[in-house]
């Protein structure tokens, strides 16, 4: 019996070596000494194994490339002066150098990425910078809950290479600091300072500013805050102690810098102030009720 098994193994090995067109068999045959039955199975199915390897070669590199891209995609986060805003840095260009802001789903329709981010419960604002994305949240939500969802959306978008805007629906970026032929010398100086000195520093904090006008009679410059600067408690300090001082130093005609608030923002701000007033009144009423009960019990 042993001699028949040995002779069978030798015949299988000889057949495997004699078949140069089957490289998979030659590799597998090295381990045939351990099992004559395994050797026979490999020898009989050698063509199928070879074909299986060849069929897989076309698909595997693409799959490996996609996995490698997903693995190497690393998104950093940076805090901003505004606790309600967080700066996400994907390590790739986000825009072509301009900025875009979305405060509701209607304005975000041209951008699939902005739309997906705003559908996350708690995200109330999205801002695209040249190489970053700033997300702003509702105060009732914690970043520890929102960050994983934002990470997942950003990771999927930038790993896929999808465009930032739908075809033909790319919004025009702000050109507020572009010096026009109709601008006065004073306005031209203000725009140049905002573009070269102020805007880069503001973008470092995940926000931006938009020039809205200059009143030559009053000397007031109006600026709109965007991104993380919107609603930031230190925004007034930034305007007065930072931007205003610099503009007044280089442009003597500037007397003051004020924040520009459009109609939609004004309505939202009024509603917010009303809500705060109602909550404060409710708190006072509750306190008075507790005080009356304590007075009654102590009587």
UniProtKB/TrEMBL annotation:
SUPFAM superfamilies named among the record's database cross-references: Fe-S cluster assembly (FSCA) domain-like, Hypothetical protein SAV1430
Residue stretches making up the Scaffold protein Nfu/NifU N-terminal domain: 75-161
One of the record's GO molecular function terms: iron-sulfur cluster binding
One cellular component (GO) term of this entry: mitochondrion
Any Gene Ontology biological process: iron-sulfur cluster assembly
Pfam families linked to this entry: Nfu_N, NifU
Family: Belongs to the NifU family.
Record's protein name: NifU-like protein
Organism: Vanrija pseudolonga
Gene: SPBC1709.19c
């Amino acid at each position: 019996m042993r001699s028949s098994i040995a002779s069978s193994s030798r015949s299988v090995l000889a057949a495997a070596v004699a078949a140069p067109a089957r490289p998979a068999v030659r590799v597998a045959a090295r381990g045939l000494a351990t099992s004559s039955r395994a050797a026979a199975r490999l020898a009989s199915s050698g063509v199928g194994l070879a074909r299986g390897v060849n069929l897989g070669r076309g698909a595997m590199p693409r799959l490996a490339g996609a996995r490698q891209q997903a693995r190497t995609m690393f998104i950093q986060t940076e805090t901003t002066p505004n606790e309600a805003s967080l700066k996400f840095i994907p390590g790739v260009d986000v825009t072509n150098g301009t900025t875009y802001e979305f405060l509701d789903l209607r304005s975000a329709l041209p951008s699939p990425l902005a739309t997906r981010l705003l559908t996350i419960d708690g995200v109330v604002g999205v801002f695209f910078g040249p190489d970053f994305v700033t997300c702003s949240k509702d105060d009732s939500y914690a970043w520890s809950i929102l960050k994983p969802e934002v990470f997942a959306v950003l990771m999927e978008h930038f790993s896929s290479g999808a465009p930032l805007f739908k075809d033909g629906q790319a919004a025009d970026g702000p050109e507020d600091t572009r010096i026009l032929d109709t601008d006065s010398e004073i306005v031209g100086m203000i725009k140049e300072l905002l573009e070269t000195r102020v805007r880069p520093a503001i973008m470092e904090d995940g926000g931006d500013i938009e020039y809205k006008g200059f009143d030559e009679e009053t000397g007031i410059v109006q600026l709109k805050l965007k991104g993380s600067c919107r609603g930031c408690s230190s925004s007034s300090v930034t305007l007065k102690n930072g931007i205003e001082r610099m503009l007044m130093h280089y442009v003597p005609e500037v007397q003051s810098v004020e924040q520009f608030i459009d109609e939609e923002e004004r309505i939202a701000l009024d509603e917010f102030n009303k809500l705060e007033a109602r909550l404060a009144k409710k708190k006072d009423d509750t306190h008075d009720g507790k005080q009356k009960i304590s007075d009654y019990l102590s009587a």
